[in-house]
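Structure first, sequence second, as always.
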């Protein structure tokens, strides 16, 4: 949120159009559910087995590589869809679709609950 607000203010200062702050901030905020999925992957891995925590790093690297190099190598859309960031609306400039954001938020919530319930079952302490 801070990065989106900063980018929006910087853009508004350069162009003189303060109305663009909201558009740029919105473009940053729609990334939150996809980042929540990554958080859920980490929490589920840690909750089920702490040794699996590296899965979070593997997922992060995979999502970044797919986002950066997938279009360059013209990967199949099914491969690109592995990354939750592929499902986020392309804002500003694109149309806001709420359904993918709700699905991503739901997946993130399920993964977080799995992680918390797994952690609760472990003998910690």
């Amino acid at each position: 949120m801070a990065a989106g607000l900063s980018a929006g203010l910087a853009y508004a200062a350069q162009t003189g159009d303060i109305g663009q702050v909201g558009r740029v901030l919105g473009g940053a905020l729609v990334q939150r559910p996809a980042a929540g999925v990554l958080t859920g992957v980490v929490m589920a891995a840690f909750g089920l087995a702490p040794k699996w925590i590296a899965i979070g790093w593997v997922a992060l690297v995979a999502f970044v590589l797919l986002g950066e190099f997938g279009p360059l190598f013209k990967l199949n859309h099914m491969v690109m869809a592995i990354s939750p960031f592929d499902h986020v609306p392309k804002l500003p400039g694109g149309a806001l679709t709420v359904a993918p954001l709700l699905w991503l938020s739901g997946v993130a919530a399920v993964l977080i609950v799995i992680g918390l319930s797994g952690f609760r079952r472990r003998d910690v302490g």
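Margin note: Helices lie at 2-15, 20-29, 32-48, 54-69, 77-80, 98-121.
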